[in-house]
Design brief:
The chain is of the alpha+beta class and about 160 residues long. The chain contains 4 helices and 3 strands; from the N terminus they run H-H-H-H-E-E-E. The protein has a 3-stranded antiparallel sheet with strand order 1-2-3, covered by helices on one side.
């Protein structure tokens, strides 16, 4: 028996809309997950950079019995000079991964107070109050700080202080 009813081929509008909605939901999930992973990676880089800086600053202290002033760490010619035990410092470690400065030199600068997209290096005399701004041998206490994207373990900053 031959059917007189011709069956049309293809998808209905409702079927197409359901597929589009499902694809949209999956795309939104992938994008938000990707953004979260990127933020975690930048936060891990911040922790690594601050720990690297701490290692270099402590090595300098071992040799000189004082910590370097911030101006010294920010001077690319000083960190590469012989005799200051900072030659192995990779200047990239001074730049926050989210810092979009106009040049490498602008990005690779420490600041006194911690702010987003820059690393903080507060260095003081032995009293912990008087700021140490010169290359004199009175720099005895420091704190290196990075500001997280969001929070990590209920903290918005990562801080490393002097070991001595």
């Amino acid at each position: 028996m031959i059917s007189l009813k011709k069956r049309s081929q293809g998808f209905t509008i409702v079927e197409l809309l359901i597929v589009i909605v499902v694809i949209g939901i999956l795309a939104a999930l992938v994008i938000t997950t990707y953004a979260g992973i990127q933020g975690k990676a930048r936060n891990t880089k911040r922790q690594t950079d601050i720990t690297t800086l701490q290692t270099q600053v402590e090595a300098y202290y071992t040799q000189n019995n004082a910590y370097p002033a911030m101006a010294q760490l920010n001077d690319p010619t000083w960190t590469g000079s012989p005799g200051n035990n900072m030659k192995s410092l990779d200047r990239v470690a001074l730049a926050d991964p989210s810092n979009t400065g106009t040049s490498d030199t602008a990005r690779q600068q420490l600041v006194a107070a911690p702010v987003a997209n820059s690393y903080g290096y507060a260095v003081f005399a032995a009293d912990g109050i008087t700021a140490c701004t010169t290359a004199a041998k009175d720099c005895a206490v420091y704190a290196l700080t990075a500001t997280y994207e969001g929070s990590v373990n209920n903290s918005t900053t990562f801080v490393k202080k002097n070991l001595n």
